[in-house]
TrEMBL record:
It comes from the Bacteria. Residues 209-314 form the Antitoxin SocA-like Panacea domain. This is DUF4065 domain-containing protein. One of its GO terms (molecular function) is DNA binding. CDD domains: HTH_XRE (cd00093). InterPro entries: Cro/C1-type_HTH, Lambda_DNA-bd_dom_sf, SocA_Panacea. Pfam families: SocA_Panacea.
């Protein structure tokens, strides 16, 4: 348990001092047990506990994320993509899967499906699964609408068929605690890299960029319960690095590479980005990047490496060069 005074807050009960408590607890959700990170405030005078909306949302997201992974239930962005992939309206897809009115749209907005509904959603990721459910719901549509929907499905590909850019960036990675429970979106990843690099007006070596990426993603997880890039990070000798980082940076569009030679005949690359594309980033994403880069941009490469070596995420996983689970975001010292 970590407990510290919050100087910027007064108790809503007495106006006195407040502690911020951070701990790991086992909580029961839908009759199952999950280990989650909890954050709450304690009034120093009365000992009463209270939480903010942000803390409640973080806990809820962590429980939902773990439940989705355990039971194979798609995430909200995946649920939306299923509907859009087949060109269906909310009303049409609700009739096909047999859900109650407005349930599908609620799931797209973050509501957690039951296990049975979640498995039904997962089943229609494949074209065969979708066609099977459409046939079962044939009496819900007139003949013209049914034929049009069936044609759209037959023309669609399976959703698990990923294109080349996806594999350049993510390989065979799976969504879960090792990638920050985030959507693996090549466009969003490229926007993140471009914006970070653009802050480095004199260029940035990959060694420093690796640490900047790590801090941005893990700080995002600490604040919002999700990473930005969807990348996994590995603890190696010189600190945390994104998985396949060489391949990642080689395929990010909009980066300019300049080779620098030193007096000792050592050559390294600096990356530049003059016009970053931020269209795939949310306001929260951009704020996280700006916060992290306001601290790191003026630091030397060696200092950023040294900073990352103080983090538990590197210390606990460096010996065997293991993947760093995003749970370690809650122990970040720099942010």
């Amino acid at each position: 348990m970590n407990k510290q005074i919050v100087n910027s807050m007064s108790s809503p009960f007495t106006g006195g001092m407040v502690y911020l408590v951070e701990d790991t607890e086992v909580q029961t959700f839908r009759k199952e047990k999950y280990s989650v990170h909890v954050r709450y405030y304690v009034c120093k005078d009365t000992g009463e506990q209270f939480t903010s909306e942000e803390q409640d949302e973080q806990l809820c997201n962590e429980l939902y994320n773990q439940y989705r992974i355990r039971h194979g239930i798609p995430f909200p962005d995946e649920i939306r993509k299923i509907r859009e992939h087949y060109g269906l309206s909310h009303s049409q897809i609700t009739k096909i899967v047999g859900f109650g009115q407005n349930q599908w749209s609620q799931y797209e907005n973050g509501n957690l499906p039951s296990e049975s509904n979640g498995k039904s959603i997962a089943a229609i990721r494949s074209r065969e699964g979708m066609l099977s459910m459409l046939e079962s719901s044939r009496n819900q549509f007139d003949e013209s609408t049914f034929s049009r929907i069936k044609k759209n499905i037959l023309c669609a590909s399976d959703m698990d068929c990923n294109d080349a850019p996806y594999f350049y960036f993510y390989g065979n990675s799976k969504r879960g605690v090792n990638n920050g429970y985030s959507e693996m979106n090549p466009n969003k990843l490229q926007c993140m890299v471009q914006l970070i690099v653009s802050k480095e007006k004199n260029g940035v070596p990959k060694t420093k960029l690796n640490k900047e990426m790590y801090y941005v993603d893990f700080y995002s997880y600490k604040k919002y319960g999700r990473s930005i890039s969807g990348l996994a990070y590995r603890a190696i000798q010189y600190g945390p690095v994104p998985e396949h980082y060489e391949t990642v940076y080689d395929h990010v569009q909009g980066l300019i590479k300049k080779s620098i030679e030193t007096s000792a005949d050592f050559e390294y690359d600096l990356l530049f980005c003059d016009s970053p594309d931020t269209s795939a980033l949310s306001k929260e994403d951009i704020n996280v990047i700006n916060q992290v880069m306001s601290v790191l941009v003026d630091m030397k490469r060696a200092d950023v490496v040294a900073l990352s070596h103080k983090e538990n995420g590197w210390i606990n996983y460096k010996d065997h060069h293991n993947i760093i689970p995003y749970d370690e975001a809650y122990s970040l010292k720099a942010f």
